Amino acid sequence: MSTMATRKTPLLFSLFALVVGGAIGYGIGVKAEQSTSAPNLQACQQHLQSQTERLDQRAEQYQALVTSNEQQSQQLVQTTKDLTAITEQMEKQKADFAEQLALLDQKKQQLSVNQKKLEVTKKKLDTEVVKLKTTTTKQQVVIDKSQQYFKRQAEMQANVKETQASVIELNQAAKGFKKACDEFKSGNSWNWVSKKDCDNYDQQMKLLKEKQAVLVTQQQALAAINVEIGKK
Question: Which residues form a coiled coil (predicted)?
Answer without folding.
Answer: 45-107
